[in-house]
Amino acid sequence: MITEQERLLLHNRLGDTLGSEEARIMMELLPPSSWDEIATNARVDQLGVDLRAETATQGANLRTEMAGVRTEMAGLRVQMAELESRVDRRLGSFDARMASFEGTVDKRMSGVENKLALEVARLELAIQRSMRQVAAANMAFALTLGAIIVAALKL
What we know:
- By secondary structure, this protein is mostly helical.
- It has 2 domains: 1-38, no CATH class; 39-154.
- 90% of the residues lie in helices and 0% in strands.
- It has 3 helices and no strands.
- It has helices at 4-18, 20-29, 41-154.
């Protein structure tokens, strides 16, 4: 590979021999680095072929992976459907148990309400009896007190 110092020396010699404009033109025609680094049409064409082959291979690999992903997704869909079915069955069973439980609670509550209503009615009757007894006792007291007052007045 030619160094910058060698390029400058060549430019100066060409300038002395051909003239400065011609030396500049000749130097521009030289590659900036070695000829090994210059791309030829054949090399560019080969790189295009290689790139297309690699792209085709990568595309095929990607399609294969995508097919695998689609297969996995189909399997996951089946599993999800199975899980959904199991959940639906369990929820149905749970709903039935809850309905049965609600029925049992309703029956028990109805029984408790009936017992409570009977007890309230019994207490109301007992209170009414007690009030009648108190009223009778008050009446007897009033009559006795009246009799005592009348007897005391007669004395």
